[in-house]
Amino acid sequence: MSIRRLPPELINRIAAGEVVERPASALKELIENALDAGAGQVSVRLSAGGLELIEVADDGCGMSPAEMRLALERHATSKLPDDSIERVTSFGFRGEALPSIASVSRLRLESRVRGADGWRIVVDHGEPDGEGPAALPPGTRIAVERLFDKVPARRKFLRSPRAEYAACLNMVKRLAMARSDVAFTLEHDGRRILSLQPSSAPGRVAELLAHELDRHGVGIDCARDGVRLTGVISLPTFNRGVADQQYLFVNSRPVKDRLLVGALRAAYRDLIARDRHPIAALFLDVPLEEVDVNVHPAKTEVRFRDPGAVRGLIVGGLRRALDEESQRSAAREQAAAPVMWTSGATYDSNLIRHPRENGGPAAFQESGIPAFAGMTNAEVVAEDERLFDQAPAARAEPAVEPVPSYPLGVARGQVAATYIVAEAEDGLVIVDQHAAHERLVLERMRAARDGGAVARQVLLIPEVVELDEPDCDRLEGAISELGELGLEIERFGTSAILVRSFPAALGKTDVAKLLADLAAEIAELGGPLSLRDKLDHVAATIACHGSVRAGRILSVAEMNALLREMEVTPRSGQCNHGRPTWVKLGHGEIEKLFGRK
Ligand SMILES: Nc1ncnc2c1ncn2[C@@H]1O[C@H](COP(=O)(O)OP(=O)(O)OP(=O)(O)O)[C@@H](O)[C@H]1O
Ligand SMILES: [Mg+2]
Hints:
This protein is α+β, with helices and mostly antiparallel strands.
């Protein structure tokens, strides 16, 4: 075996393997160079998804012929004037992109510095192929043709022009969001696709992301320890089957960082089904010394000095915004159909808040509902239950009395042993009893846990549950988290677990099944999740066990108690999987169904 130094041409091709994976990655490098050159306008032209042509023109600083020659050499950059790679503010800094692209395509570089003449250099698959004067406005124009023509291995992995075009479009959008102050145009096969004027970050995002985010989005703006997070995310109910509309930026650099993607997921945990994905455009501004951008050849990943703090800011900030919004959207819904309390006061759904958040009974006192004055939420629910136990409003009977003014109405019956049908002042409410109850149990467990007082049901004789060894190991590893939720367990030999108590919120429950599900849950969660995330997830699994199953017959009192508790519990409009727990058919809609309107 003889060791040899590789010729520069081969080195460039190897670098191209890392940097230029497909047309969209070459396009990314060219646009980033234009932005680094101070362009105010970037014009992109593509043919056949970039497979035939990628052309990027800018009105940036331009290059002299000597600089152009240097730019095409490897490790030549203007972006690290003082060797301090820790404080990079430009997109590029490796001095690799142009020579890499030129080694796997035919590249025409034209440039003109203001006040000088233009020049053109052509490189064909790494070989110089002529240079000479060029006519162009000040700035730079680079055309890349026949990408990977001589690299069959790469060519094989390219997808259809349509798929490559989709990737290119996505890349332009990402960079256009990163630099909303710059004008962008995009043409594909002679068709104008985008024409973006300089704008603010929110304006640009609104233009490029689903317009529906006007109605289904939540604005984000929070900061901690010099780190700021801004942007917009979708409500949990507005989601997608693929995670293709998540745009993340660190100091204006578009990234696909795993930490950030994971934090986004964690913020939606238990609000959205696992195979659904939110839409997001999030901008993280971090002091330069807190983040290393030199960890990935295509610069799409970064490393934070304190990943935990960044993750905490994102999960906490998004979660808070989503919680606040869920209360506001409940308010909007109610406002659309004004409901009056029995006292005659206008119903203020801002009061639909968790006792923990609004300081317990105070809100009810403030609400001016005389009957509830001075009572805790639990007492209100108990009182309801008492009232309805006495009330003759039996199921499936005509409503003879006026309907008390509850937002979710009074239970009139149960359908298919699964849905509660209730009559509200303004229409008919249908509730999915299992989905609703599951949410309530989860919120109760969370409130109890956060208040440090989880009621446990202690078993007189501890129950032994047999499980296979890996499952026992998983549960054993989570003993303290489960304990916090009221589930006290101990290892009992190699393949069994002893259960001493479980959360009282569960009522009667199949402990063996619960443990098996939890073990599966923990196995699936895996990864470096924070304790809190795990707890939330585990709580959701436990909640599911403790919930009223579909198929259980409920008494009128039980149904009404469920409705009343839903009215005072945050996030109760959605089950733990992001589906609605109730729907309302307004009087108008019912009339329409019968052709009365
Ligand atoms: N559109 C442009 N306008 C002006 N100068 C440019 C342009 N594109 C490239 N250059 C010059 O060419 C140099 C080399 O570009 P290249 O993309 O290869 O490396 P880089 O941007 O410095 O680093 P990286 O490899 O990380 O992108 C740049 O440093 C810059 O000085
Ligand atoms: Mg570059």
